[in-house]
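Posting for a labmate who doesn't have an account.
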Amino acid sequence: MRQKSGPDGSAERHVKEIRRKTRRKFSAEEKIRIVLEGLRGEYSIAELCRREGIAQGLYYTWSKEFLEAGKKRLSGGRCQRNRA
């Protein structure tokens, strides 16, 4: 088992907190832009993800969510925000 620094692993806790606070947050518009660029096919997904600084798994998660939302909307579903 790995030794933790300090009596309660405080160094690891600090590192996790720093990572959490410095994690990049993408707006809905940025996610859509990235997904559409991937769907255009001008660049490989790997190249696009490297350029944007995201993991390929994250791109595919966004892509799946984007396509599912579009499918739901086109089949007559309503967005949560539009409901009163």
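Reply:
Got it, the structure tokens are right above this. The mean pLDDT is 87.
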